[in-house]
User: What shape does this take?
Amino acid sequence: MGLFGGLDISASGMSAERLRMDVIAENLANADTTRGPNGGPYRRKEVVLQEGGSGGSFAATLQGVQGAQSSTGGGVEVTGIVNDPSPLKRVYDPGHPDADAQGYVTMPNVEPVTEMVDLITASRGYEANVQAMNASKSMFTKTLDILR
Amino acid sequence: LGVTPELTHSMGLFDLTQTVLERALSGSAERQTVLANNVANANTVGYKRSDVDFQSTLAQALDGPGAASQGQIADMSFTPQTDTSATMRADGNSVDMDAEMAKLSENSVAYQALISIAHARLQMLSTAISSR
Assistant: This one.
């Protein structure tokens, strides 16, 4: 981890939070989509985050697994975007083109309130990473003062 | 002939204090990286926060009968430790954003203070050398 490791870590946090925001926006936009890519209704998507690799060295990874000592860490990584397996909503709406014989429409399992709360979490997380980055930056700038 | 006083902690131009300041700066920079990593992983399921306690590592090296020599202190390194005492959320994550941000700004200010002291001491040395 070089001198600018802190900046890289904060940058990884910022891009992860922004991806979460993108996925939340997609969920909100598709809250009423009854025809998803697989024919059925849209399913809510979620981002899976994982602690970033510790520079890839075997010793560091082993120490991390053993839990005795943690390495400095390499920020955060997105391991994937997964579908939420929770049950889809059934809404009575006989006039809907996708209604079944009983008049029920299967709607996406997107809950707008949950999405809004997640959006706030992602937004605050992003801001915190910006703050951390600014703190690291002012430290590096101050380091240059020692040469004056 | 005059007796030259024995300089126990001297390593030439730079004294023990300067070496300790330099190590503290390195420890503080390491801590900044670790705290930034905690903030980046604030929403990672199962993540446990880490911290670097460079102050007590340095204090231990300077204090007591087993005090380290200046050379040993110059070679000191700090390893981050997983904080097992921190309270965990339901998702297994132990990062408290407010506490993390407070530590981050505290560490940043401490680092800048260390830089100012190190700089002032180097300035004094430079004045002594230039003898003007």
In short: The beta strands of chain B are 50-51, 81-82. The longest strand of chain B covers residues 50-51.
